[in-house]
Amino acid sequence: MVEPEVFLAMGREVLAQQGFSQMLGAELTAFGPGRCELQLVLRDDMKQQNGFAHGGVLSYLADNALTFAGGSALQAPVLTSEFKINYVRPGVGERLIVRAEALALSKTQAVCRCEVFALLAGEEKLCALAQGTIVKQS
Amino acid sequence: MVEPEVFLAMGREVLAQQGFSQMLGAELTAFGPGRCELQLVLRDDMKQQNGFAHGGVLSYLADNALTFAGGSALQAPVLTSEFKINYVRPGVGERLIVRAEALALSKTQAVCRCEVFALLAGEEKLCALAQGTIVKQS
Amino acid sequence: MVEPEVFLAMGREVLAQQGFSQMLGAELTAFGPGRCELQLVLRDDMKQQNGFAHGGVLSYLADNALTFAGGSALQAPVLTSEFKINYVRPGVGERLIVRAEALALSKTQAVCRCEVFALLAGEEKLCALAQGTIVKQS
Amino acid sequence: MVEPEVFLAMGREVLAQQGFSQMLGAELTAFGPGRCELQLVLRDDMKQQNGFAHGGVLSYLADNALTFAGGSALQAPVLTSEFKINYVRPGVGERLIVRAEALALSKTQAVCRCEVFALLAGEEKLCALAQGTIVKQS
Questions:
Q1: Which tens digits make up the pLDDT trace of A37-74?
Q2: Distance CA B54, CA D73 (A)
Q3: In terms of DSSP bridges, do strands D109-120 and D95-105 run parallel, antiparallel, or are they unpaired?
Q4: Are A28 and A12 in contact (CB under 8 A)?
Q5: Is B86 in contact with D113 (Cβ distance < 8 A)?
Q6: Which of B80, B81, B109, B113 should be substituted to probe chain C, the one whose Cβ sees the most C Cβ atoms within 10 Å?
Q7: Is A44 helix (H, G, I), strand (E, B) or coil?
Q8: Would an 8 Å CB–CB cutoff place D106 in contact with chain B?
Q9: Cα–Cα 20 to 30 A to D48, which of A25, B112, C76, C82?
Q10: Is B136 in contact with B78 (CB distance < 8 Å)?
Q11: What helix, strand, coil percent values describe chain A, rounded to 5?
């Protein structure tokens, strides 16, 4: 069994190799078999024309969190096959947080769900919900 | 009726107000009622650990293209309600291109589809397909 | 506030008016604001060529459960706008059970999730997961 | 190469083995590599409380059409992994028709799309659009 801090360090190493995640300043704040939490500071260059987080930033967080949750559940190199996301509230706040979980695991894939929150004045508000499929690289 | 070049100029004005789109260097290369094309140069800071376009960049393009197609079909300020995306090939190339179309229009919403392509050595390769709902702001 | 048994009776009245639900023998076994449970006996005329529950039966259960959960959360006549479903295990058993919940509620819509289980020899097995949008009729 | 009429006959044989499809009276009206058309007569026992086709009937058609399109593209026994469906108009008419197509094919999966129409007084009206993943049985 992998120690929690080793697991987290391994996840952070992968994240550090993602140019896009580095550019966005994403941090892996929790990581274990079948679950993860990512956070980023919401900067102005991540917004759309109304000053809210761009949908593409929320979908990036969902995509990446589902992949980390699925990859850690499958314990293998993975690909994100697909996901769907529902936006339910404008992303307004200092920080965005996503938490993902693998809910159904087979030998070849994990179906995962996640929720994206905006942290505003210390309170988390649900902004988006996603569900998707992570598959083992063949 | 709005002249095509006026329509395109209006769309580019919206895109110019999106900090995230500016940071990614997205260009609106075609825009008309119910359809749009966006492009961006695939930079290293848009990649994941294997050197492919990060899924979050493809989902950004899908999100934004669906919204522009839906907004131009509804001719009103809109929100992206939801979408689903299937990734079908790693994003490898100099440039990413997305084309979206509104397929079903009502008074309050447009259901749109799009395809994301990677341009490699002059050839477009289909990387992702998405379908989603754009709603009028109430 | 509506008494739980009155709420359930109201839901059953709606279900009784759905010809398709009657034909499939669906029962509303729990119903409250923002949540519901439906069950049906898995008959041979609900199967596909391998003897499993047809995907269309699982998607019927998901569709209906999401709609009941969303409608009871919104407390208004509703339409199912869209949903996505992931199939994770063949539907094998005597009975299918779906449980749905509204997770994000606004004035006009509810985003809901559900899980579909097959009951085999007293044990529930997760067969499908869905997420979708229920909107108020305008 | 398989002759078109042989292909269609093979598809009809599979459909005939689906108890659910038989019960609903679904007919395979066109079938070729990567595409199919299914139809059914809209009966009262396929409706919901407002007299429209139940969403579950539309989702059955989408599910089955995506699977036939994907299976015929992959030319192998398949499973439906997932799909998403958007409902855009109440299903009102004498007959429902679905047409599906495989758009992205790999060795192990096909990503397919379909549209569901209601036939009313000789005119087809778009009722639902779906997109999903069909995978080879491993």
A1: 999 999 999 999 999 999 999 999 999 999 999 999 99
A2: 28
A3: antiparallel
A4: yes
A5: no
A6: B81
A7: helix
A8: yes
A9: B112
A10: yes
A11: 30, 45, 25
> Does the structure show a pLDDT above 90 at B2?
no
Q: Which residues on neighbouring strands pair with residue B27, listed in sequence order?
A: B39
Selected residues 57-86 of chain B with any CB under 8 Å from a CB in chain A:
57, 59-64, 67, 79-86
- Chains B, D: CB pairs < 8 Å: 39
Supply the DSSP symbol for C50: T
Q: Give dist(CA D118, CA D126) in Å, integer.
A: 7
CB B61 within 8 A of CB B26: yes
Which pairing describes strands B27-32 and B35-41: parallel, antiparallel, or unpaired? Answer: antiparallel
Phi, psi at residue D109, to the nearest 5°? -150, 165
Q: How far apart are CA A51 and CA A87, in angstroms?
A: 16
CB atoms within 10 A of CB C85: 30
The answer to whether D17 and D68 are in contact (CB under 8 A) is no
Question: What is the model's pLDDT at position B4?
Answer: 86
Whether the CB of A22 is below 8 Å from some CB of chain C: the reply is no
Which structure tokens are listed for D42?
Answer: 């809209």
> Cβ–Cβ contacts within 10 Å for residue D122, how many?
7
Secondary structure class of C32 (helix, strand, coil): strand
Question: Are the CB atoms for D69 and D78 separated by under 8 Å?
Answer: no
* Among C51, C26, C19, C30, residue whose Cα is nearest residue C40: C26
Query: Does A1 have pLDDT greater than 90?
Result: no
User: Are B99 and B31 a contacting pair, CB within 8 Å?
Assistant: no
Half-sphere exposure of A116 (CA within 13 A, CB side): 34
Question: What is the residue type of B66?
Answer: L
CA dist D16 and D23 (Å) reads 10
pLDDT of the residue at A4: 86
Q: Tokens 């799009």 map to which residue?
A: B114
Q: What number is the ipTM of this complex?
A: 0.96
Instruction: Find, among B21, B108, B5, B109, the residue nearest to B65 by Cα.
Output: B21
What is the reported pTM? 0.97
Residue A75, by phi and psi: left (phi above 0), alpha (psi -120 to 50) or beta?
left
Tell me what percent of the residues of chain C surpass a pLDDT of 90: 96
**Eight-class DSSP state of A84:** E
Q: Using CB atoms within 10 Å of the CB of residue C138, give its burial: 0 to 12 exposed, 13 to 18 middle, 19+ buried.
A: exposed
